[in-house]
Amino acid sequence: MNQPLYDFITAHRQREFRIDALPSQAERYKAEGLCPRARMSDRFCRVMDAEVPHLLPGQKIVFLRTVPRPYDCFTEDEWNAIRSHHFIHEQGYVSNVCPDHTYLMKRGLLAVRESADEYAKADIDALLRLVGRYRDEAIRTGRDDVAEVLEKVPEKPAETFREALQFFRIIHYSLWLEGNYHNTVGRFDRYMMPYLEADLAAGRLTEDEAYELLLDFFLSFNIDSDMYTGIQQGDNGQSMMLGGTDPDTGTEIYNKLTEMCLRASGELKLIDPKINLRVTKNTPLWVYEEGTKLTKVGLGFPQYSNDDTVIPALMKLGYDKADAENYTVAACWEFIIPGVGMEIANIGAMSYPLAVDRALPTLPECGTFEEFRANVAAEITAQCEAIMAGVKNIWFVPSPFMELLYGGKTFTEGMKYNNFGIHGTGVSCAADSLAAIRKYVYDEKKLTADELLAAVGADFAGYDEMLHMLRSESPKLGTEDSAPADEQLVWLTETFSGALAGKTNERGGIWRAGTGSAMFYLWHADEIGASPDGRRKGEPFAANYSASLFAKIDNPLNIVKSFTAPDLGKVINGGPLTLEFDSKIFSGEENMTKVASLVKYFIGRGGHQLQLNAVSREALLDAQAHPEKYERLIVRIWGWSAYFVELDKGFQDHVIRRQEYSV
User: Fold this and answer.
1) Of 255-259, 299-303, 519-523, which range is least confident?
2) Nearest to 332 by CA among 543, 150, 96
3) Nearest one of 635, 628, 632 to 652, comparing CA atoms
4) pLDDT digits (tens, 9 = 90+) for 175-223
5) Phi/psi of residue 420, each to 5°?
6) CA triplet 480, 482, 484: central angle to 5 degrees?
7) What are the start-end ranges of the E strands in 552-648?
8) Closest C-alpha among 409, 399, 396 to residue 119
């Protein structure tokens, strides 16, 4: 590893090169009546022309942001007018998609420029001017190797591994600079392996030299990431997919580059790129053991995705077989298709506990549990209908440069896949609540409906005995006696997916149900009071598809059994089961194999996604008290990893409260 470069970046010294932000041109754009594409192109060119080239110590894969986040292209009044007629997702800029990086890498910008519109042409010209300035700087500083690469790419197609890595870096850099965000990496070991293979076969590179280039490339993801958009620092969407089925051969990928990426991530111990690994029930145990080695480092990845579940599920939803086999993940976990999808996989979130909460006042009127559950189903459907009804006349700021990676097709036209995804929040809270209601109100009749409503309404104040019963004795997902809660989990996921089945959006796509929660596990929990599972007001839900924070888990196998009870192909928008392990268990080889076997067991049972976190409660508490001692402590949040001390306290507290399992 290039230690001087590593030290330079991790000490954030590259930030010293940043210049003042460019003055906003939004008022001028408005006065001149410039169309959105013209505005985006003008801003892109202005920022490109303002960028100042810098080569960091020994850096081989270059390009560094020196201009802070670009100004908005629209005034506040213009945004208000746009929002009055359109649904605007998040910031209104294209995000959370995976373009086809190879489209440009295989053609070169000069060839693509010939068929581009005037705005994309201007973007290409501005980018090539910056490349020229970098080339001049490389020559000036005696870095002939860098100058030689930039003499070739990105004007012309990449032919070597180094050229391909540099080409990708330039594309990635440009997408962020354009204003797009959560720009994912896609199936890196599939599309980059031919370049590496050719270099090794021709003797242009040794494996050690290729690995050093890869380390340099991985470092590039961490140079500018503090400037990237996200809910919290670290939530930047730089997700890299490894492994999985090759649509061309039908075989499972685990090649030399796959292994090198896992090794590089473990050596660097940085939060980017975020590693995902596609596996199947036939994936050998040693592959899971390699993934577990990376988990042991404490990065919160790899996140595993199960081809056996995901590919057939996507095909049932209408995806072509080759596209389904080529799936990757969006910024966190949502399953998307590179290069042909303009899917908005996080367009809304449905709260299971809110559905239970809204149905709860009808409990005294319901003679049977099935009657009450029908009211919960109606509330789930009502939430889904409200989300779908609210997404009308959607509009995105055009992205002339991003569209080049889609063959010049505009996002206004739509892509092959234009599906929308909805998260499902707090499923363990809802499942446990329904199990408690069935057990104590209907089956055992220990509680009347009115008694339960009164206790929940009082946040269990004065109901200590009932609170203990609901919180500690009632069936819970992931526990030894989870069957009653498992049954409710199956019903809830079926009800959610059924509420969206057959529905289409205005772009001709479908609606997909998922098991993820994103940040809604905190936000949605604040929308309701106490719940019948013994959760009190102000206590958060579990993140994603996970057991309750106060469920008493004796064995992680029980968690896997509970959370693979549903047909997860029906909620295939994505959202991982998250397991927290005490970091001490990774100290022995036998335990490493046990963790790997647990992952394989989850996949074999039809699980769709899994992420593991190696945590130490003591270290986390100390980090809250003494953040200066833990600048590099990494934790998994919902679908991304972050430096613990950079998180808001609410997210920190949630991580600390999560379960720690042993094997």
Assistant:
1) 519-523
2) 96
3) 635
4) 999 999 889 999 999 999 999 999 999 999 999 999 999 999 999 999 9
5) -115, 140
6) 145
7) 577-582, 609-615, 634-636, 641-643
8) 399
